[in-house]
Amino acid sequence: MEPETIENSVQKNNLSKIMFLDKVIPLENIKESDFLKTMTFQEDKDFDIRVFLSNSLVNYLHQLEPHLSADELLKNGNYQLNFIIDGKLIYTENLNPGAGTAESKKIKTNFRIPFISTTNEDSWGRYLWMRFYLANGGIDALEPGNHILKIEIKPYLKTSALKVGNVIAQGEIQLIIPKKSISEQQIAVQKIKPGSDWKVSEEKFSTERIRALNQKIAENRFRDITGIVVIKDEKLLLEEYFNRYNRDSLNDTRSVGKSFSSALMGMAIQDGFIKSENQSLKEFYNVRQFKNYSSKKDSVTIKSLLTMSSAFNGNDDDYESPGNEENMYPTKNWVTFTLDLPMTQNKIGKNWNYFTAGVVVTGDILDKSVPNGLENYADKKLFQPLGIKEYKWQFTPQHKPSLAGGLRMKALDLAKFGQLYKNTGTWNGKRILEKVWIKKSFTNYFTENKNFEGYGYLFWRKVYKVGNRNFEAYQSSGNGGNKIIIFTEIPVVIVITAKAYNKPYAHSQADKIVQDYLLPSIYE
Q1: What H or E segment, with its residue span, contains residue 519?
Q2: Is the CB of residue 90 less than 8 Å from the CB of residue 137?
Q3: What gap in Å lies between CA 427 and CA 276, rounded to an integer?
Q4: What is the pLDDT of residue 121?
Q5: What pLDDT is attached to residue 122?
Q6: CA 254 to chain centre
Q7: Which of 165, 135, 185, 213 lies closest to 63, judged by CA?
Q8: How far apart are the first and last CA of the chain?
Q9: What is the structure's pLDDT at 2?
Q10: What does the DSSP 8-state code read for residue 297?
Q11: Are strands 110-116 and 77-85 parallel, antiparallel or unpaired?
């Protein structure tokens, strides 16, 4: 009989348990003394869990649906993790079925999840921790002091309905959260300096709320925020910068730039260079010369590109989608890439999918329709009238402005763009955009989808809730948590610039800043 290995002995002693570690140790070298009951939590130190199960995931899923094959079970299910702090459930996540290898889920009964890695280990566990900690309330529940973090794991299966099994592993640890030393200067409301194009507002707001917000940013509880601007009644009420950014910084706002395509399309229509947003692709391209031709492709309208409902097989939220933007960027011609895509069965104008490549086509249509090209037209018709002098486009491989995003601009200039829409198209008494275009842009074309707040002409609809009040807004939104927010019923425009690119907390923290701090500071 073979002697029992350390690995087997640790497994046997900890069946159905989750154990916590503050360093990376191969399973065969782990000793019981390595497992922690208490830990001082620091974000620059390793934080791992080891999960010891009585069975493999496939066997647990089989108990939920005995008639499905192993591959079908793994295609539709995985582990559910519950994060509980001081007895209160803070976050539940059903892991994407793609997380973890199929082979390990068929045979493994123990595995490691690295939550924080000093080597920046690329792991689904790291993003899971970020979603819990930064995007879904973990950081707020773990305020300075002592807390009990408990984690439970269950199997889940989603076929026609969601089925969740019993707890198959659980464990808890006492986390000691140290208090950070923050100076008065970091918390104080920043004074608005003279010399901007904006009149400064004399209106009162809750400095207490803004100080609390600044403290959170200083403590890195809201992270990668670079600027916050609030305009009320066309005057500058709040202007603050963080993380070495200032009034003159050009912010890479990513997809915020898509809304500029919407504005420029409205201008080109009112100037008569484009007849209407109801024009179809065949009026601008010989669609038959592109791959995957179908008569449906002829019927794609500018409007369907502006509302992201063109029925092309393109969806940036689906990595398997042929039209995902990541497939476009390496190609030599982004317009050809888009027009080569096959069509789906979706009805044009009916089904919404986030589709960056379609916005590139709207830019190309503009570039070939307006005199002297899009770059010149945008400067003359939009930026100069708004007094926007410094900005940087991102360009396509053909060196045309990319309306996919990446337009770099100062926070106060982004606010001018938002205020133009708040003014229903006028700036300094001069009409720049037709009122009717703004009304069309700020219309939700997807009211039938109750799980979706809505989308207009390259603007997102969003409703913020403060107390018993709802505040409807339309907003430009970009990767990293960048926002230009135009409220429909109150005289407010908010700009948030941030660089939390590709982080799961980017948008949720920006929304939290608006809903929990900025709006209450003005309206509570």
Answers
A1: helix 519-523
A2: yes
A3: 24
A4: 87
A5: 84
A6: 11
A7: 165
A8: 73
A9: 37
A10: H
A11: unpaired
What is the pTM (predicted TM-score) of this model? 0.93
> Among 401, 450, 445, 409, which Cα is nearest to 306's?
445
Query: Which CA distances in Å does 492 have to 233, 249, 393, 473?
Result: 7, 23, 27, 10
pLDDT, position 7: 60
184: tokens are 């008065």
What is the predicted pLDDT for the residue at 1?
31
- Beta strand pairing call for 391-392 and 235-241: unpaired
SS3 478: strand
Nearest CA-CA partner of 385 in 435, 436, 419:
419
141: its two tokens = 């529940």
pLDDT score at 3: 39
Could you please report the per-residue DSSP string of 480-491? BTEEEEEESSSS
CB atoms within 10 A of CB 496: 28
Closest to 504 measured CA to CA, from 523, 471, 480? 480
Return d(Cα 180, Cα 215) in angstroms, integer: 10
Report the distance separating Cα 155 and Cα 442, nearest Å.
43
Q: Output the pLDDT for position 5.
A: 55
List helix spans (H) across 355-444.
356-369, 373-378, 411-422, 435-441
Helix (H) or strand (E) holding 494: strand 492-498
Q: Which residues of the chain have pLDDT under 50?
A: 1-4
Proportion of the chain in helix, strand, coil states, percent, rounded to 5: 35, 25, 45
Beta pairing partners, 227: 241, 497
Query: For residue 4, what are the contacts with CB-CB under 8 A and spacing of at least 6?
Result: none
